[in-house]
C-alpha cells in the first residue's frame, strides 16, 4: 500500500523513532542467549550488539540493538511499531526464566545518537516493522553481512532454519538498494512485480529522498536482482537505478 507524502525532505533526516524493552532479573542474559541470533555473552556496558528474534521457522519478529543499562538490566531498542509483538513473543518463552520483561518506551531516555530513516536505509539496514512481521528470514535482509548472526553460538529459536540457509546456500532472495521516481511512497511489505505481473520481491524499507525521488531496500528473487522493470500494485516504477550497498552481499557457498 503506497503512501502519499509531502515533499519536505527534512523528515527523512530526522532521527528514527525507537521503542524499548527492558529485561531484568538473573536469567535475562541466559534467556536471550537461547532466543536470539547474536551472541548475548558479548554484551557489556561498553559493547552494544545487534540481533534478531525469530519464530521457530526462522521468520523475524523484530530486530534490535541490545544495551546494558546502569542497573545491569538489558535494554532492547527496536522499531516502535513492533514493540507489542516483540513483547508478546518474548514473554511467551520468558515464563520459564527468572526475568521480567517490560515495555519502557514511554519512560526510557537513551542518549545514543540514532540514524535517520534515510541514513539507516543507505547503510543497508532495513527495519522489521508491523507490516513485515514474519515476512523475512535474517539473510534476506543481509543480516549475515551486518553481523547480526553468530553461526558459532548454540541453539536458539529459529536456528535450524537460519543455519541451513547459511551452510546449504538456500538463500534465494536478498536485499538490494534502489532509487526510483514516484509520486507515492511505497510501504514496507508491498509486493514488487515485474511488468508481466509476476511477483519478484517485497519492499523492506522506503524513504523519500527528494520531491519525487524515493530510495528503497527491496528483497528480490536472485533471478531479478538486476531488473529495472518493476511495478508496485498497478504503478510501474520509472527511472529505477540500482545503488551499491556499503557491504558485500554474501554469496552461496
Automatic annotation (TrEMBL):
**Any one of the GO BP annotations:** iron-sulfur cluster assembly
> InterPro entries this protein is in?
GcvT/YgfZ_C, YgfZ/GCV_T_CS, YgfZ/GcvT
Which PANTHER family does the UniProt entry name for this protein? TRANSFERASE CAF17, MITOCHONDRIAL-RELATED
What's the protein here called? Aminomethyltransferase folate-binding domain-containing protein
Upper classification of the organism: Bacteria, Pseudomonadati, Pseudomonadota, Gammaproteobacteria, Cellvibrionales
Amino acid at each position: 500500500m503506497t503512501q502519499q507524502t509531502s515533499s519536505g525532505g527534512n523528515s527523512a533526516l530526522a532521527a528514527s523513532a525507537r521503542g524499548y524493552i527492558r529485561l531484568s532479573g538473573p536469567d535475562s542474559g541466559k534467556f536471550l542467549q537461547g532466543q536470539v541470533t547474536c551472541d548475548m555473552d558479548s554484551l557489556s556496558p561498553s559493547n552494544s550488539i545487534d540481533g534478531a528474534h525469530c519464530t521457530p521457522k526462522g521468520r523475524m519478529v523484530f530486530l534490535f540493538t541490545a544495551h546494558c543499562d546502569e542497573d545491569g538490566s538489558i535494554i532492547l531498542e527496536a522499531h516502535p511499531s513492533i514493540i507489542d509483538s516483540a513483547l508478546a513473543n518474548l514473554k511467551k518463552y520468558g515464563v520459564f526464566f527468572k526475568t521480567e520483561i517490560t515495555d519502557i518506551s514511554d519512560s526510557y531516555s537513551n542518549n545514543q545518537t540514532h540514524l535517520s530513516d534515510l541514513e539507516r536505509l543507505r547503510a543497508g539496514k532495513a527495519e522489521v516493522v508491523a507490516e513485515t512481521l514474519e515476512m523475512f528470514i535474517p539473510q534476506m535482509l543481509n543480516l549475515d553481512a551486518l553481523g547480526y548472526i553468530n553461526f558459532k553460538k548454540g541453539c536458539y529459536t529459529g536456528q535450524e532454519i537460519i543455519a541451513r540457509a547459511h551452510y546449504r546456500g538456500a538463500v534465494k532472495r536478498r536485499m538490494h538498494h534502489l532509487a526510483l521516481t514516484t509520486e507515492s511512497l511505497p510501504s514496507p511489505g508491498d509486493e514488487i512485480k515485474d511488468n508481466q505481473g509476476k511477483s519478484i520481491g517485497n519492499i523492506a524499507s522506503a524513504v523519500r529522498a527528494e520531491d519525487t525521488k524515493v530510495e528503497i531496500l527491496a528483497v528480490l528473487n536472485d533471478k531479478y536482482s538486476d531488473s529495472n522493470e518493476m511495478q508496485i500494485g498497478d504503478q510501474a516504477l520509472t527511472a529505477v537505478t540500482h545503488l551499491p550497498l556499503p557491504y558485500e552481499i554474501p554469496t552461496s557457498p
